[in-house]
């Protein structure tokens, strides 16, 4: 990906600025491709993230703050995401009988089944996106990204 060509500039961009622009462009491209892969399932990337978090609870309920803390995108409105997943019958929300302020959220069998299908599609997409990298390249990339 040639940053200068993509943003149609003939001048050389200073390396620090170019690096940030490049990261943003790659991030946007990956997000777009993953969103396209999720589209047939009528699930957004943020909704998918909520489902994965709840699956990771291994049957235990989570509350909204737990989900929010674990979200990849911290800008997401977790309540709205959960509401949409409830309508799709992928998650259920229960108010705790002993403490009415405590709301517990669990993934449903439908949600687990949907995730199973989505996982297959996303694994293919992830393999496609990383096909030009060796495992060693990916380790190096992750080490570099960890420096942020």
What keyword list fits this structure?
two-stranded antiparallel ribbon, mainly alpha, 148 residues, Arc Repressor Mutant, subunit A
Order of helices and strands: HHHHHEEHH
CATH top level assignment: Mainly Alpha
Number of strands: 2
> N-to-C terminal Cα separation, in Å?
21 Å
Could you tell me the CATH topology label.
Arc Repressor Mutant, subunit A
Number of separate helices = 7
**What is the number of independent domains?**
1
- Helix amount, in percent? 55-70%
Mean of pLDDT = 92
Low-confidence stretches: none
The CATH architecture would be Orthogonal Bundle
* Biggest sheet: strand arrangement: 1-2
State which percent range the strand residues make up.
5-15%
Q: How can the largest sheet be summarized?
A: 2 strands, antiparallel
How are the elements arranged and paired?
Elements: H1 3-6, H2 15-38, H3 45-56, H4 64-70, H5 78-87, E1 91-95, E2 103-107, H6 109-129, H7 135-146
Antiparallel strand pairs: 1-2
Helix pairs in contact: 2-6, 3-5
Provide an overview of this structure.
- This protein has 148 residues and is mostly helical.
- It has one domain: Arc Repressor Mutant, subunit A (Orthogonal Bundle).
- The chain has a two-stranded antiparallel sheet.
- Helix 2 crosses helix 6 and helix 3 crosses helix 5.
- The model has no long low-confidence stretch (mean pLDDT 92).
Summarize the structure.
This protein is mainly alpha-helical and 148 residues long.
